Amino acid sequence: MTTSTADKVKNVFPRAGEVPAKARIEPLEQKDYLLGGRLKTWKGPAQKVFSPVSTAGPGGPERVYLGSYPKLTEREALAALDAAVRAYDDGKGPWPTASVETRIAAVENFVRRMKEKRALTVKLLMWEIGKSAEDSEKEFDRTVEYIVDTVNALKDLDRASSRLSIDQGVIAQIKRAPLGTVLCMGPYNYPLNETFTTLIPALIMGNTVVFKPPKYGVLLHRPLLEAFRDSFPEGVVNTIYGEGRKIIGPLMRSGKVNVLAFIGSSRVADVLKQQHPKPHRLRCVLGLDAKNAGIVLPSADIGLAVKECLSGALSYNGQRCTALKMLFVHRSVLNEFLEKLVTEVDGLKIGMPWEPGVKITPLPEDEKVPYMAEVIADAVKHGARVINEGGGLTNGNFVYPAVVYPAAPAMRLWREEQFGPVVPVAPFDDVSEPLAYVVDSDFGQQVSVFGSDPDAIAPLVDTLVNQVCRVNVNSQCQRGPDALPFTGRKDSAEGTLSVSDALRAFSIRTLVAAKESGANKDLLRGIMRGRKSKFLSTDFIL
After folding, report:
1. Is the model's pTM score more than 0.85?
2. Scanning 183, 191, 227, 346, which has the fewest C-beta atoms within 10 Å of its C-beta?
3. CATH of domain 34-287
4. Are strands 181-185 and 259-263 parallel, antiparallel or unpaired?
5. Cα-based distances in Å from 535 to 201, 202, 209, 332, 341
């Protein structure tokens, strides 16, 4: 007998004894934080951590307790910032003045130590944010690969800078220098990978760092604290924990933060930037909101379009900035698209993160469950329907995906980034309609276009590249490969991240120049041949 969607949702959580032994986890009571090269013990209040995963109890779902972490105060946060500032020491510290080879060796040592903690980090990823075991493993491995690629990119960058130039009688060597102290904050949906895509480039370029894990995905960083402590000089990496509103504001208001590396909402980023007393000295590297659209043209391969839109909209429950959050489908292929989309959505495996092949899992944010209900209700109020069986049903922190049709401008889903398992679909008769949507949007990260007619695709691409920063043809929106630029227009980003772009984002071109005289030639020759400077050097890294 076929199990209904309602029954599947009702029984989505296992009983405590049904959790497989290899997936079980012991609570991690974190009582320390990294400051000034030492793990400091915290004896104050702690923040309890509960998993989005529940077990079925007699009174309903019971959240699994995962442990706790320190709730630091403004005092500890400022102490961490001061430690980073001292380590930078106005650019005189051992880390900013270290050779590129020295910094690379430190990062390589860290990644070796990091690999030793793969199993525990992956398990914490799975339990803390509800990400499937497969995707948690991918996130860890991709992060390691990103670090290795960053090292190789820096080697290439340094090789290109290893020569002197002579122009109009001036001898010069141009390299990249660090910017100072970086405040680094990543997102909960990729708490390891996206955090490290700013943290590692910042470090390897010679900056010092204060690092705050996201609200969800804190404990998974604990296994790496010793690796940070032992791989980098004292004060180069410092961690802080607690309520962002209480500990981040004082850091920004101090004026001692040189770079803000933040991945989250534009609203929060605006508040943080405005708190800095010297905004012209603050460099920002920001990954913010997105409302990426998918446009399905009459010439599209519908099977392919559905497959890519399904993955684009619902991978990790739609909790990705690169997710497809609004689908526009030409009316001539609408019925076929909707029928296949609903079939594919209803075929997705729901369950717990450790289950093989699971696609839809519980959501980490408690407030996201009522929010999903609100935007679905608002859409229905304005004429839409949930067209798949059980769409929007909930159980604890679990929300079953909802396909909402037809989406219209009066609805909240039209403009708000849902960041969850709700898929709005709007019909169109002329391509100017979805194009106008992209143009009018506050966001400009990516878009996906599905079709096979060159005469239709080409002019659309030519317009869209001036509205978003990546146009995906017959594929979902995504970040990778990491060698490609990752950024956005409008309110979606500030700065560009990729393996090579990130190195530039956390550094600045600096040069040493001297007039081409005999005395200056002798001076420069003496410095470089005697290896008296780490900056002035023609050494070639292999």
Report:
1. yes
2. 346
3. 3.40.605.10
4. parallel
5. 18, 18, 22, 63, 57
